[in-house]
Structure formats: structure tokens, C-alpha cells
Amino acid sequence: MSLIVDIRKDLGSFQLEAAFEAGNGITSLLGPSGCGKSLTLKCIAGIEKPDRGHIELNGRVLFDSEKRINLRPQERHVGYLFQNYALFPNMTLRKNILCGMTEVYGRDEKERRLQEILAMMRLENQVNHKPHQLSGGQQQRAALARILVSEPLLLLLDEPFSALDAHLRDSLKIGLRDMLQSLGREVLMVTHSREEAYTMSDSIAVMDRGRLLTHKPTKELFADPGSIPAAVMTGCKNIAAAVKTGEHEVEVPEWGVRLKTAAPVREGLAAVGIRAHYFNAGTAHNRFPVAYVEEMEEPFETTLQFRFAGQDPNSAPIWWRIPKDKKPAQFPAELGVAPANILLLYE
Amino acid sequence: MDWYPLINSLRIAAISCVLVFFSGIFFAYYAAKLPRAVKGVLDVILTLPMVLPPTVCGYFLLLVFGVKRPLGALLLQVGIKFVMTWYGGILAAAVVAFPLMYRTARGAFESFDQTLAYAGQTLGLSNTFIFWRIRMPACRQGILAGTVLSFARALGEYGATSMLIGYTPGRTATISTTVYQLWRTNDEKGAFFWVMVNLAISTVVLLAVNLLEARQKKAVKA
């Protein structure tokens, strides 16, 4: 299974330039709203047409501007789960699912597959319901059922949880992940939520303003985002411009500190990032005097804001996140961070 | 009792309504896909009959289909004459009623959730299936309203009709031209009779529509 995408499209305010390959498993396109990630999915499905480029699925060319190939969506065998699930409102669940069986022939065979998918999606009792009578989670499963019976070679999920209530999301996330993994299909998902991307996907591609920046296995991306937008999208709160001062040392002028790093510093360093969870009052590494600014309480964690002693007082304070029960009675005079936890961010 | 105006009016309204139904939907569907500039011009042309006095529409129809005009003369050679014939009334009624169908259908199509059509395409459904089985049912209310309005408008057409086909009892007379003719010749009783006939038809049509809508709402709830 392989998907190769290399497309360009002029969006007026910016250019969409997406080039990536996706293999087996679940791949996420992670980026802020309006960065072009949904548009990328639509181009793959054939709903939107790129200005230039090439799209190939399992060796079959879906789009090629030079060879003037542009298969219709009907010919691409790409399943698309829309944000609002796009169930046909005038049809019952049964008819909706039968709509996906355009290449299944014979009444008995259709009925057999219908019952099979209904059982798999736990929708046996809703077969004669209209879409508006289904709950959010049932709608999601119904839309997925309708796509799966069409036997797509690739599944595209466009913000699959955005139409659901927050309390439903977490349980459905796990359910959908397990189901997709058991199907063993290639999946490309679009999301702006790093939690969703982290839970659901094997690898993540970060997009920003139409550009695809980094594409890495999920854990690797969070451990080493590599660029400023990727660090922001993976939830890094503290980012500041930095310059290389040694093989394992960088200077951060805004914070007024020099930091030791575990990884060797390459040329072209733009900034460093430190995740809010990684400060530690006990470590001797990268230890500097700090001054308390203010704090913000959340249900299970506290965010403490501080500045380094040598830091510009007009610059943004630094975030330190700590579970409530681990919060020190008195704000420490010095804080440190392990060299391995300094994220090196390049141009 | 001569029922010719009733029969003539009903067949003119029914046939022009069918023509307007398909042409209105066709133009509404394709106009929505055109580039903005072309769409604006086309929209003005297609809507003009709604704001022009019907007599002006009739004038233009005579300009095109008059037997001494090129097209009218050509049609006459193959035995088709829209002037002073009952089926000329279909042309007059269709032209005047068209914008009502076109505009209501366009409004309905524009509010259609396009992702439903995209979903159909990615599932492998043909565009014809998507149009008739997904888009049209979703736009049912607007299409139905447009059809009824067009039928009612066609039934009540007077201006363009009288310009193009005039009033010949038993040949081109419709209810509305009969009402005028009888009233003009001081047959007030006759005029009143045909007014009541027209009122009765319009009331029945509107009642039927309301009944249909109520039934659909019930069906959705059930």
C-alpha cells in the first residue's frame, strides 16, 4: 500500500504545496485551521483539482497534470469520511449503506454484506432509521459503514471527531483507532488536534500555511519536532530564537541563558523549544535562577509562569506545567531542564 | 355551457408547467456552476420576464415568432404557428412562468449541502443518480414551491397570451382572456362565473400543496 502525493494549488492568500508519501497504517495531517490540510484530502479524493502535480495510489496514477490524467472521484476508489459525515438525509441507514455497494451485484450478496457491516458497526437496531434519528457516534459509524462496503483502497478522514461532543470524543477515538487497525487499511486523517493525532496515528505530517513541513513516526515527531511550526503544533509552549555556540551548546538571547543539549547542534538552528512539563527543580543540568510571575490553575494541573533571572522583563514568561499534587509549597529559586529535553528547531 | 376556456387554460398551464419544470431546473443547476460574470448576465436575462410587463414579453414573442419574422416564417413552413393558436399560449405562459421556477430552484440548489454530492461521488455513485436521488429530494421543498408557483402563474397568464394568441372563442380563449372579454362586452354574470372557476382551481392547488407538505413533515418525523 502506498500513496504518493506531490501537488500545488494557488489559494490566493497562499500556495498549497504538499509532497509526501504514506505507507501502511494511519497517517495524520496535523495543522491549524485553514492550512490546506482538508484541501489536500479533497485533491486526493478528486473533489478538488490541484493546479499542478501528481497523485498516485498503489502504483495507479489518480492525477497527473503533465500527462493530463485526472480520474473522476468515482474511479479513484478512495473513501472519504466527511466532517459532518454526509449521510443522505432522505434515505434510511439501510439505503445509505446500499449506496456504497455500487460494485456489488445480486440482492442476496448485498443483503449479506449489509448485515455483516451492521453487526461490525453495532448498528443492527438502527437499520431503518433516518440519519437525523442517529446519535453522533452512530452517524460516524454509519458513514464509515457506507464507505467500507464500497471497499476503498484508501480511507480519508476529515476531522472525524469535530462534529461530536467533547465527552464522546475520547471513547470514540479509541474505538475508531482499534477498528481501523483491525481493518489494516491505509488511512489518511486530517486534524488540528494534537491529542487526536497522537492517539490515532502511526505517523504525523505537520502542515502550516499550505506547506508540509515534517513527516515522522508519531513518537519521534513529539520527541523531536525539528521546526518551529511542528513544535507549536505538538504543543510546545516555550520557544525562543537561539544561536549555536558549541557542539552541544546554544545561546538563547531572549532568555539570557546558555543551554547544554544532548543532541549535537547542526548549522541552521533557528530556535529552541522546552515543553512546559520538562522543567525540574531537582536537576543539576541547565539550572538557572528564576523569578515567579503568576500561575493558572487547571482541573488536574497547574501552570506556573516564571522568567529567568537574566531574561528581558518585556518578553513572554516561560510556562512550567506540573500535576497539582507535585506542586511545591514554595516556588523554587532555581529550575533546571535535562539536555535531552531541549528541542532543537531548525529553519 | 362552453367549457372550452377551462380546458384550454388547464392544458396550457399543465404543459407549460412541465416545460418550465425541466428547463427551470436545468438552467438553475448549470447556472450555479458558471463563472460569476457569465452567471450574472445569464441571471438577468432569465429573470427579466418576471419583472417586465407581460405585454412587453408578448411583444418580444411576436417579434420572434410573428409569421413575417424569419423564425416565425421558417416555423410556418413546417406547419408550426405560435400566433393565434392555442399552443402559442403554452409559449406565452412558459416564458412568463419560467423565472419563478428558475429562481426558486436555484435558491434550493444553492442551499444544498455540496458535501452530500461529493460523498456520493467518492462512493462511486453516478452523477445522474446523485442528481435525481440525493440532490432533488433534498431540494424537494423549493422545487415543489417553484412548480406550484409556475403552474399558478401560467394559469393566470393574461398579458403575453392576449398579445400572442388573442381571443378567439373556442380556439384560443383561456379563462383570463374570457373574463376580460365577457366583462368588456357587459356580460357581468359570465365574467363572474369564470372568476369563480379560476378561484376554485387556485384554491384547490394551494390546498393540495399544503396537504402534501404536511404529509412530508409527518413522514420525516415518523
Question: What are the SSEs and their pairings?
Answer:
The complex is a heterodimer of chains A (347) and B (222).
Chain A: E1 3-10, E2 15-22, E3 26-30, H1 37-45, E4 52-57, E5 60-64, E6 69-70, H2 73-76, E7 78-81, H3 93-99, H4 107-120, H5 136-148, E8 154-158, H6 166-183, E9 187-191, H7 194-200, E10 203-208, E11 211-217, H8 218-223, H9 228-233, E12 238-241, E13 243-246, E14 249-252, E15 257-260, E16 269-274, E17 288-297, E18 301-308, E19 318-323, E20 334-335, E21 343-346
Parallel strand pairs in A: 3-9, 3-10, 7-8, 8-9
Antiparallel strand pairs in A: 1-2, 1-4, 4-5, 5-6, 10-11, 12-16, 13-14, 14-15, 16-21, 17-18, 17-20, 18-19
Chain B: H1 4-31, H2 36-51, H3 54-65, H4 70-77, H5 88-110, H6 114-122, H7 127-138, H8 140-155, H9 159-164, H10 175-184, H11 188-221
Helix pairs in contact in B: 1-5, 1-8, 2-5, 5-8, 6-7, 8-11, 10-11
Describe the structure.
The complex is a heterodimer of chains A (347) and B (222). Chain A has helices at residues 37-45, 73-76, 93-99, 107-120, 136-148, 166-183, 194-200, 218-223, 228-233, and strands spanning 3-10, 15-22, 26-30, 52-57, 60-64, 69-70, 78-81, 154-158, 187-191, 203-208, 211-217, 238-241, 243-246, 249-252, 257-260, 269-274, 288-297, 301-308, 318-323, 334-335, 343-346. With 347 residues, chain A is of the alpha+beta class. In chain A, the strands form 5 sheets. Chain A has a 6-stranded mixed beta sheet, sandwiched between helices. In chain A, strand 17 (288-297) and strand 18 (301-308) form a beta hairpin. The longest helix of chain A has 18 residues, at 166-183. Chain A is elongated. With 222 residues, chain B is an all-alpha fold. Chain B has one domain: Orthogonal Bundle (MetI-like fold), CATH 1.10.3720. Chain B is 78% helix and 0% strand. Chain B contains 11 helices and no strands. Chain B has helices spanning 4-31, 36-51, 54-65, 70-77, 88-110, 114-122, 127-138, 140-155, 159-164, 175-184, 188-221. In chain B, helix 1 runs antiparallel to helix 8. Classes of the chains: A alpha+beta (347), B mainly alpha (222). At the A-B interface, helix 2 and strand 7 of A face helix 6 and helix 7 of B.
